Amino acid sequence: MAYTSYLDRIIGYGGGVAAGITGQRYDVRRLTQRSNGSILTQPPVISSFPVVLERTTSKKVIEDEPFSLVIFEGDCDWTRLQFGDVLSEYGTNALLDGAAFVYVQHRPTREALFVRTESVATITRPVDAPARAAASALPTANAGPYIVSDEEADVEEGPTADGDVLTLTAGTYAFQPAGSTPAQVPIGIEPTSRTGQSREDAQPTSSDATRFVGYTPALPIQERDEIAVGSKRYLVLEATTRYSGFFGTIMLLVNIGT
């Protein structure tokens, strides 16, 4: 095992040397305790990092992958990277230009794997406010009309139209009340084949609804969260977050309009 680890690092170093000659240069951004708002706007931790990227669909390379994501093999010095690092073309504004790549997997003596995240998303979690008890009318001292003040009783409320938004503060993603500044999250979305009627509790329920697969770095996303990418909105039908093997959050989505 120690020899394999040593050999792996030598191969990684050699890959970095080769990529330095023929590879594209990237800025590497990383989630740290100083990250706020978006990982894409943070100063790079590595500048001009060389990588040779080549798209792959090989099931020998993509282990235990349930969906067809846009995945690239990367020939580089992977020892300088951490899972979840976001690579964007050197010298460009990652948030505006998109087309970033997230480092997601490495196996001994093999190339590193990256997922393309070509868009930027914001994520919300619909919240139903708990219904308050129905107000009881209280008589006034002057025997006039019955009135209710906010101090005496709460009026009944139905579900709120607003939901919590995913934020990034001091390196931590968390859902905060509506009105908070949403995190700008790198995301990759690809259509899957038409798979029949959506779940009974999902919208829309058209039997012709196209489903999508989405990928983000590891985030606290769950079923029924909503994702906005530009003018398009998607509903999360399923979400799986992995911190080992294949780093990140993989989602099954359906478009719910604009």
Describe this structure in words.
There is one protein chain. The protein is mainly β. The protein folds into two domains: 2-118, no CATH class; 121-126 and 167-255, Beta Barrel (Thrombin, subunit H). It is 10% helix and 37% strand. It has helices at residues 2-22, 94-97, and strands at residues 24-29, 46-56, 71-75, 86-89, 100-106, 112-117, 119-126, 163-169, 172-176, 185-191, 211-216, 226-229, 232-242, 248-255. The strands form two sheets. It has a six-stranded antiparallel beta barrel. Strand 13 (232-242) and strand 14 (248-255) form a beta hairpin. The radius of gyration is 24 Å and the shape is globular.
How would you summarize this macromolecular structure in one to three sentences?
The chain is mostly beta strands and 258 residues long.
Using brief descriptors, characterize the structure shown.
mainly beta; globular; 258 residues; Thrombin, subunit H; 10% helix; single chain; 14 strands; six-stranded antiparallel β-barrel; six-stranded antiparallel beta barrel; 2 domains
Kindly estimate the percentage of residues that lie in beta strands according to DSSP: 35-45%
Number of helical regions? 2
Give the radius of gyration: 24 Å
State the share of residues found in helices, binned by percent. under 10%
Largest sheet: 6 strands, antiparallel, barrel
Order of helices and strands: HEEEEHEEEEEEEEEE
Bulk shape? globular
Contiguous runs where pLDDT drops below 50 for at least 5 residues: 129-161, 194-208
> What count of domains describes the coordinates?
2
